[in-house]
Amino acid sequence: MESSGRRRVTLDDVAQRAGVHKSTVSRALRSASSDPRVARIREVAEELGWTPDLIAAGLRNQQMRSIGVLVPRLTDVVLATIFEGIDDTLSQQGWQAVVVSTWDEPEVQRRRARLLLGHRVDGLIVADARDDEPYMVDIAGRGVPVLLVNRSYPGFVSVTCDDELGGRLAAEHLVGLGHTRLGVVAGMPYAVSLSNRVRGFRAAARERGVEVSDDLVVPSTIYPSAGREAGTRLLDLPDPPTAFFVVNDAAAIGLLGLLRERGLTPGVDVSVVGFNDIPEAAELHVPLTTVRNPMREMGALAANEALRMISGQPVTSRTLRPELVVRASTGPR
């Protein structure tokens, strides 16, 4: 679903659909009344996708040169790095990035997106797309271009890492070291980027004669505690893995902590591969083998593509190539 070019819904549109005067619509949408007539006008406005214009009427037809950015949380190093790429690129071209956190919660996503639209941003960059709650579909029908970054969704232009390839690189590395019992800390199922990493990992392992069974793939979050919890579950199996693929570095760091507590040396007793190559990965006591994700480049490209969408130029989805970075956390079986 590329930029539709659909104009923004006005009070006149709502008034025409509701069969009332524009001034009645204006009063109703500002009112806190529970009157059924007011409720009906609000319902019509919602159906049409009307959003409040928070900018002075004299600026209504001017470009505000701002783009809203929705991220799950800026405390995540990956998302913060992507946003730095977006913000720096936009500022160099005289544009403003307005970022909000949604915590990956569907209702918060919708509310924050509408807030940004109410502030008349010229476009949206969405970094929190979920394949089980596509709020972008609703937002994309409200008159502004929408571009996805980090995660993809069918029908939308996106800028992402080739996550499936990244998973394949991890599997090729571990199987090449002789590991045949592979555990996966899989992240959230609704995040397409993470599920693509798992899919690529399992497919590449299978092609090399190693089957990663479902009981060795543990859903999780992306925090260090997730790596510890999923790692505990896998290490406590009667036949535990000799190697792990963790779909993000933060959870991989949690797993490394668990291994240390159990007296296991990463790269000697157990191998661990992460994903993203955050700065901390190289500075650990046992540096982490990981798949480097071009995060800042991804953000910069997303910003440029969003500007192209806003100007009416054709855009297509882009995928950036990951790279395996081998460090001490992996070794022969």
Short description:
By secondary structure, the chain is an alpha/beta fold. Helices cover 41% and strands 16% of the residues.
Q: Approximately how much helix is present in the residues?
A: 40-55%
Distance between the termini: 46 Å
Low-confidence stretches: 1-5, 54-61
Nearest-angstrom radius of gyration? Answer: 23 Å
Derived structural class? alpha/beta
Give the topology, please.
Layout: H1 11-18, H2 22-30, H3 36-48, E1 66-71, H4 77-92, E2 96-101, H5 106-118, E3 123-126, H6 135-140, E4 146-149, E5 158-161, H7 163-176, E6 182-187, H8 192-207, E7 217-219, H9 224-235, E8 243-246, H10 249-261, E9 271-276, E10 289-292, H11 295-310, E11 318-320, E12 323-325
Parallel strand pairs: 1-2, 1-3, 3-4, 4-5, 5-11, 6-7, 6-8, 8-9, 9-10
Antiparallel strand pairs: 10-12
Helix pairs in contact: 1-2, 1-3, 4-11, 7-8, 9-10
Features:
12 strands; alpha/beta; 6-stranded parallel beta sheet
Walk me through the structure:
It is built from 11 helices and 12 strands. With 333 residues, the chain is α/β, with parallel strands linked by helices. Helix 1 crosses helix 2, helix 1 crosses helix 3 and helix 4 packs across helix 11.
